[in-house]
Amino acid sequence: MSADEDISLEEKRVYAGGSARPAFVATDAGLARVSVSGDLVGEFGLAVRESATDVATADGRVVAATDEVRQLTDDGSQALGFAGANVVGFADGIVAAGDGRLARYDDEAWTTLAEIEGATAIGDGIVATESGVVGFGGESRGLDSVRDVTGEYAATADGLYRGPDWEQIREGSFRAVATYESRLLAVTDSGSLLDHDDGEWRDLDAPGAVADAALTADGIYAITTDGTFLADAGDGWRSRVLGLPGAHRLAVPTARTE
């Protein structure tokens, strides 16, 4: 699969110069890999052709929750097992949750860490669930109806919260949250994208209903629910239709590929 419009000569020079980074989108059609550089959105294709509900990346590794947990390799993907996992993450290794449990992958096997129901996202040492934030040992960490966690922030059905004491910093219903250094992005249930920087909130007026978003040093990236990839490096949105509806999660490495 390639982009539905030709990449310009300027864009080709950018990618040839090694400044591109991959972005990964979990969709109903599979796990998509999209080449981006600043706000230039280049070629894309399916890295995994099974429906994907979540994707995470860290230290050059990428894992996705598909028919089982899969890790991308240089020539495709490696099946790691754990059928039934619907969310994945990295915390001292690969972790995944689903089918009533949280587990870590080590030595080619999954070790159960805790019995957890209704997992919706994995953070650093915590899991977002339909009934609240839960620690990796299964202990309750508060809140309710949590849709996403990252760093010290949690997106819930009744607001955006900052831990560890879960102070509400924004009212409303949120589906996703992303951070980079001191900057914060939040996605509302209606698909609006909010930016919090230097103590101020602003609506980024994204062209479409946003499913998930990511921040890097280069700019803001987002995926809409109908599969349009968005990028803004400071001069407004640029977009590319991927033709992959049912987008769920977006992961963008903070470091470029060389």
Structural description of this entry:
It is a single chain. By secondary structure, the protein is mostly beta strands. It has one domain (9-14, 22-251): TolB, C-terminal domain (Neuraminidase, 6 Propeller), CATH 2.120.10. Helix content is 3%, strand content 56%. It has one helix at residues 9-16, and strands at residues 21-27, 30-37, 40-48, 54-58, 61-65, 69-73, 76-81, 87-90, 94-98, 101-106, 109-115, 119-122, 126-129, 132-135, 146-150, 153-156, 159-162, 167-171, 174-180, 183-188, 193-197, 200-203, 210-215, 220-224, 228-232, 238-241, 247-251. The protein has a four-stranded antiparallel sheet with strand order 3-2-1-27. The chain is globular. 42% of the residues are buried. Residues 1-18 have low confidence and may be disordered.
Task: Tell me briefly what this model is.
This protein is mainly beta and 258 residues long. Helices cover 3% and strands 56% of the residues. Mean pLDDT is 91; it is low at 1-18.
Biggest sheet character: 4 strands, antiparallel
Helix content: under 10%
Largest sheet: spatial strand order? 3-2-1-27
> Residue ranges: pLDDT <50 for 5 or more in a row?
1-18
Q: Give the termini separation.
A: 23 Å
Shape: globular
CA gyration radius, whole angstroms: 17 Å
| CATH fold-level topology | Neuraminidase
The CATH class turns out to be Mainly Beta
Based on the coordinates given, report the CATH architecture. 6 Propeller
From the helix content, strand content and strand pairing, which structural class follows?
mainly beta
- DSSP strand content: over 45%
The total strand number stands at 27
